[in-house]
Structures are given as C-alpha cells and as structure tokens.
Amino acid sequence: MTGLELILAGGAAVVGGAVNALAGGGTLITFPMLVAVGVPAVVANVTNTVALCPGYLGAMFAQRQDLRGAGPRLRRLAPAATLGGVAGGVLLLHTAEQTFRTLVPWLILFAAGLLALENPVRKWRTRGEGGDVRTARESWTVIPIFFAAIYGGYFGAGLSVIVLAVLALAAHDSLTRLNALKQALAFCVNISAAIFFLFSGKVAWSAALVMAIGALAGGALGGLLAGRVPPQTLRWIVVAVGAAVAVVYFVQ
Fold first, then answer.
1. Domains in the chain, number
2. Which of 190, 93, 79 is nearest to 143 (CA)?
3. Domain extent at residue 146
4. Which of 70, 80, 75 is nearest to 174 (CA)?
5. What's the pTM?
6. Torsions phi, psi of 226, nearest 5?
7. What is the pLDDT of residues 65-100, one digit of tens each?
8. Fewer CB atoms inside 10 A, N or C side of the chain?
9. Which residues pair with 226 in a beta bridge?
C-alpha cells in the first residue's frame, strides 16, 4: 500500500474507533475504506478483524467491574463464541473473492439494519429490568450465541446487537451487566477469528498495524467526546453511511 492509502486507512480507523466508543458500527467506516483503496474484499475483511482487536479488548477492560459474578455465564457461553468465531473465519477464507464481493452490500445493509435496531433493543431490555437472575433457562443461549459468532467471524459488523438481543431474551439481569457480558463475548469472537486469520496469509500487515494504532487513538478520542456527542445521532449517521455505501456497491 502507498503512504496515502495507509493514511486513509489509518484515518478511517481513528473515526471507526471513535464511532465504536460512542455508538458502535465502526466497521461500516473501516471496511469500505480498505476496499476503496484497493484491498481485495476478503483481505480487507480479514485485515479489519485483526486491526480492531485492541478496541474490543479495551471495551471489555473498561467494563470489567460489571463482569463480576459473570463467571458461570462466561464459562458456558465463551466456548460457543470462540468456536463460532473460528467457524466464521474458516467460512470466510473458503468464500471466493467474487462471491464475497457480491455478498458485501447485503452484509453492509444487514449490519446497518442491526445498528438501527440497537436503541429499540436497549429500550425494550430496559423495560424488562428488575427481575431476579435466573440461569436455568439460559442453557439454550449457547446455540444462538454460536450462530451469532459465526456471523461475527465472517463479517462482524452488528454482532454486538445480535448478542445483546439474545442475552436480553434469556437473562434477567441489568442492562449494564448484560452489556459487559456482550463485550466479553464479542471479544471472544473477534480474537478467535483474528488469531485464526494470523496464519491465513490474508492479512495486509501494513494496514493492520496502522489501523490498530488509529483505532486505539479513536477509542480514546471517543471517550473524551462521550457526553458531548449524542450517541443516537451518531448511530443514525453511521446507518446512513452504511446504507449509502451499500447502494454504491450495488451500482458497481
């Protein structure tokens, strides 16, 4: 990649990291930029997954206090999230480049739709707060978490919304604690797929390193802007950008 292309990828990672910290959906910024600067779609998706790993780790670390007491749930769900992430990665690497490029606009539209649903899911979950924690009915959650993780390892954008919705249906717990659990499971999906991708030969390392630094900087910037930028407004901007990018891909 040229210096200009690396600067553009790094800049997109800064924006994507800030967007993830504030509202989510940063992948809808970073992935299209990699493709725009000439990175093949599959390589761009693999590189994006590897580059954004530090952001997932930071999000989980930031909510570590809310994970206290979540050990039983993590031991039950983390293996499914990890295996699903690897399965999604395997599926991606066995998808032909042209096939994946055909799927890209649909995947972006799907992710944008999930992002648009995040606030309604949160509001619905908030109305259900206040019940006792019941774990007996949560055993079935392993199955939808596994399939959500396959999607996360394959593409990833919007994964958090799917995981939160599944947890909201199964667990009677506060939104804060479920959100922390969601972050931990999303990290399991992302890191397992990323580790698998390290040995795939599909990582554009120059872009991945620049973007990892940019994502960290963007995450810190997003933390500073928290409270000043309405997350809902930013979320709808990202949804609009994602829809516009999908239209461009359809036209092409």
1. 1
2. 79
3. 3-251
4. 70
5. 0.79
6. -55, 130
7. 877 887 888 888 899 999 999 999 999 999 999 998
8. C
9. 229
pLDDT tens-digit series, residues 146-172 = 998 999 899 877 777 788 777 777 766
Which tokens hold the place of 173?
A: 């717990």
Give 69: exposed, middle or buried? Use CB within 10 Å, 0-12, 13-18, 19+. exposed
Burial class of 10 by CB neighbour count within 10 A (0 to 12, 13 to 18, 19+): buried
Q: What secondary structure, in 3-state letters, does the chain show?
A: CCHHHHHHHHHHHHHHHHHHHHCCCCHHHHHHHHHHCCCCHHHHHHHHHHHCHHHHHHHHHHCHHHHCCCHHHHHHHHHHHHHHHHHHHHHHHCCCHHHHHHHHHHHHHHHHHHHHHHHHHHHHHHHCCCCCCCCHHHHHHHHHHHHHHHHHHHCCCCHHHHHHHHHHHHCCCCHHHHHHHHHHHHHHHHHHHHHHHHCCCCCCHHHHHHHHHHHHHHHHHHHHHECCECHHHHHHHHHHHHHHHHHHHHHC
Structure-token pair, residue 94: 């066995």
